[in-house]
């Protein structure tokens, strides 16, 4: 008998009493969180800022200005930009001369790993929404926005639609039907990469981005 | 620590000498005190506004339901993962899990492995095994990286290098990697980032742990702050995840409350920086991610614990570390004193099953039974009850239920058993008992001033001049004399 069968046999033939299957009451996860859109945005911002995330609110037709200002302030030489997503198209087709060099993730990682790891200053990705309670962005990387885009460059800029913020994670799971459509990789991102492993002192950018900057689109500036 | 384990064949057995050493180390005690105070405070804050009891009840319920359906959920998980293109392996014990991982490496001709944090791999001593077989295994979590470089083991399951201060880490990095000596944590962190990025690029295989495995969708969930877990599971061409068989949950919905409990209990975070959910290897149209993903399901004693109606609660654990953070013993002696993969209260209830009670006989008694661990445990494991149960097992002290844990009875001493028998015999004979007690109080001047292990760190209790029976009797007489009504409370 192989290990698999032996382990399963022991589990199936468990001695002792029948194990309890308690009824579950999930209400504690969602109760009292009927926040309005404005409240959700405020809470999201407050929570992600408390862990060193940066949030900018921009009207729908002005986020490009916000992006340019962010990149300028950091002297970014280049920006890794999605090719197919509308946000990428908007940036590429804007014809603005004040944007840094636009890069594309258009080849397998193996072909340009050192460049991605060492030479990209910033990347911008879309999000599938956010979670107010925990201050988290929902990212589903894919062919247009590969997994390392939000991880390897020192600055990660994420575009978030203001009306796409859920109160809680369970709410997002249900509303977006995750259970029947999990992608290769799904992520919740709540702030820049950090560690407290050296004597409890916080340091950012230990492996991933040092900075996480969220542009909330369609929100009037606070 | 390394010196101790090299000099001593059974590191767990020498808990007491190591604990005594640790207690003398002011620096270590300071480190742990500060860190644990900070973590306790953060946890309390993170749960502010929550109905914590209801949430813990839900967390416990989810884990109980997972265990009740464990074999079926594992089969469902296996079939979903397989459909998704993730290969599933089963290992009876740590050795077999190590072999499985080595075989995958050999087949891929992999020489360099980069690791994310995984307590199960510590349990298996995987790094050691791989090195022995000519495969370099490098830890990438900053704390683990430091600990590995120092040739030590983690002293806390969430914060492995908590026993070290900046000075020591600076010196270590300087000696081993040539970075400048510095107290600037940002500089030290940035240097490690640079070193490890190189290693990520060179790695042939990434090995990670798993926090939850979701059966419904075939999803491996990882919780982390640094991003090294994402690197490990994305950059190398092959990802091997290792987990204990108990980590499975039925659905994403059932996973959610565990996630809410885990990060708040562990570090007081609403959520860690990254919650990474992996369901497939790289697809043809995707540009990064590993082409092969494996999951190794490790039993290593867990199906044994599963058999016992009481001890099975141990398997609810989600490895948050809150029980350590709140343990007065752990905070004072630190993680290394235990000499086990998992230290603190969870280690004391889990390690006896992995190593046997003979090896770990001191762990169930390394507790004041203050109850803090049981109160904070997010999945309501009755840790103090389990500690008492294991104490009974270690002396075969339960006449009604036969002991079943491997190595049970190893602490039983004839002398002690005889004393308890005598005590029982005496109690069954009231006249004799009263006489013996009266004699004892009268002869109390003969009582030795020391009482063995008991008085090593406590004052020796003194026999009273009168027995309880005598005092109650006297009191009853005086109250009668003054004809005051006797109220129960006064006695
Ligand atoms: S026993 Fe409970 S408190 Fe301790 S690590 Fe496990 S889940 Fe956390």
Write the layout of secondary structure elements.
The complex is a heterodimer of chains A (222) and B (491).
Chain A: H1 3-12, H2 37-49, E1 54-58, H3 63-73, E2 78-80, H4 86-93, E3 101-103, H5 109-118, E4 122-126, E5 130-131, E6 136-139, E7 155-161, E8 165-166, H6 169-175, E9 185-189, E10 194-195, E11 203-204, E12 211-217
Parallel strand pairs in A: 1-12, 2-3, 2-4, 4-7, 5-8, 7-12
Antiparallel strand pairs in A: 5-6, 6-9, 10-11
Chain B: H1 2-7, H2 15-24, H3 26-46, H4 52-68, H5 70-84, E1 86-91, H6 94-107, E2 112-115, H7 119-124, H8 126-132, E3 136-139, H9 142-149, H10 166-177, H11 185-202, E4 205-208, E5 212-214, E6 219-224, H12 228-234, E7 238-244, E8 248-249, H13 252-267, E9 274-278, E10 292-298, H14 302-305, H15 322-325, H16 328-333, H17 344-355, H18 372-376, H19 383-394, H20 414-427, H21 430-442, H22 468-481
Helix pairs in contact in B: 3-13, 4-13, 17-19
The structure holds iron/sulfur cluster (SF4).
Iron/sulfur cluster (SF4) binds at residues 317-323, 345-346, 376-379, 381 of chain B.
Amount of helix of chain A:
25-40%
Count of DSSP H/I helices of chain A: 6
Q: Helix-strand pattern of chain A, N to C?
A: HHEHEHEHEEEEEHEEEE
Number of domains of chain A: 1
Q: For the CA atoms, what is the radius of gyration of chain A?
A: 21 Å
């Amino acid at each position: 008998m192989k290990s698999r069968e032996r382990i399963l046999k022991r589990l199936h033939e468990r001695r002792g009493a029948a194990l309890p299957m308690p009824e579950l009451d999930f209400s504690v996860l969602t109760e009292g969180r009927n926040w309005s859109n404005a409240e959700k945005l405020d809470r999201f911002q407050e929570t992600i800022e408390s862990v060193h995330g940066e949030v900018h609110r921009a009207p729908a037709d002005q986020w490009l200005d916000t992006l340019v200002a962010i990149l300028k302030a950091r002297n970014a030489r280049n920006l890794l930009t999605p090719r197919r997503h509308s946000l990428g198209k908007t940036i590429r087709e804007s014809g603005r001369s004040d944007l840094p060099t636009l890069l594309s993730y258009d080849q397998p990682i193996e072909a340009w790993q050192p460049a991605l790891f060492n030479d990209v200053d910033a990347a911008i990705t879309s999000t599938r929404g956010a979670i107010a309670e925990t201050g988290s962005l929902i990212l589903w990387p894919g062919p247009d926005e590969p997994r390392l885009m939000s991880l390897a460059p020192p600055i990660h800029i994420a575009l978030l639609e203001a009306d796409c913020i859920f109160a809680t994670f369970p709410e997002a799971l249900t509303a977006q039907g995750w259970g029947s459509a999990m992608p290769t990789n799904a992520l919740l991102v709540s702030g820049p990469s950090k560690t407290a492993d050296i004597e409890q002192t916080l340091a950012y950018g230990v492996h991933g981005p040092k900075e996480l900057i969220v542009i909330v689109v369609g929100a009037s500036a606070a | 620590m390394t010196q101790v384990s090299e000099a001593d064949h059974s590191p767990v057995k020498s808990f007491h000498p190591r604990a005594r050493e640790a207690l003398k180390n002011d620096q270590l005690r300071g480190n742990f005190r500060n860190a644990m105070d900070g973590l306790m405070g953060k946890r309390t804050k993170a749960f502010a506004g929550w109905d914590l009891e209801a949430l813990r009840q839900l967390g416990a319920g989810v884990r109980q339901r997972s265990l009740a359906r464990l074999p079926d959920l594992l089969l469902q998980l296996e079939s979903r993962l397989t459909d998704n293109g993730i290969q599933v392996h089963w290992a009876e014990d740590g050795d077999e899990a190590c072999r499985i991982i080595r075989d995958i490496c050999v087949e891929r001709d992999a020489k360099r492995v980069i690791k994310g944090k995984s307590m199960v791999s510590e349990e298996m001593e995987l790094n050691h095994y791989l090195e022995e077989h000519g495969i370099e295994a490098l830890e990438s979590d900053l704390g683990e990286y430091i600990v590995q470089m120092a040739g030590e083991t983690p002293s806390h399951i969430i914060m492995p290098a908590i026993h070290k201060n900046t000075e020591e880490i600076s010196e270590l990095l300087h000696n081993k990697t040539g970075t400048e000596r510095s107290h600037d944590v940002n500089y030290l962190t940035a240097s490690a980032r640079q070193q490890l990025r190189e290693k990520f690029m060179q790695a042939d295989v990434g090995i990670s742990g798993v926090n939850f495995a979701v059966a419904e969708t075939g999803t491996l969930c990882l919780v982390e702050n640094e991003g090294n877990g994402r690197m490990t599971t994305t950059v190398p061409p092959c990802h091997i995840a290792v987990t204990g068989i108990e980590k499975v949950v039925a659905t994403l919905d059932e996973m959610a409350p565990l996630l809410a409990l885990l990060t708040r209990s562990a570090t007081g975070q609403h959520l860690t920086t990254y919650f990474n959910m992996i369901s497939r290897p790289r697809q043809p149209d995707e540009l990064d991610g590993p082409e092969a993903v494996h999951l190794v399901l490790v039993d290593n004693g867990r199906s044994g614990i599963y058999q016992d109606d009481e001890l099975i609660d141990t398997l609810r654990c989600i490895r948050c570390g809150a029980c350590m953070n709140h343990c007065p013993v752990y905070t004072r002696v630190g993680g290394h004193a235990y000499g086990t993969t998992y230290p603190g209260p969870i280690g004391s209830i889990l390690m006896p099953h992995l190593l046997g009670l003979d090896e770990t006989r001191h762990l169930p008694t390394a507790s004041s039974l203050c109850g803090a661990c049981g109160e904070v445990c997010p999945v309501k494991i009755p840790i103090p009850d389990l500690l008492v149960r294991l104490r009974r097992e270690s002396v075969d002290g339960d006449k009604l239920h036969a002991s079943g844990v491997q190595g049970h009875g190893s602490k039983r001493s004839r002398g002690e058993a005889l004393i308890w028998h005598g005590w029982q015999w005496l109690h069954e004979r009231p006249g004799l008992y009263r006489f013996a007690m009266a004699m004892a109080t009268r002869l109390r001047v003969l009582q030795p001033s020391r009482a063995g292990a008991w008085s090593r760190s406590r004052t020796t209790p003194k026999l009273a001049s009168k027995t309880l029976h005598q005092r109650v009797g006297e009191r009853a007489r005086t109250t009668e004399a003054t004809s005051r009504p006797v109220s129960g409370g006064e006695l």
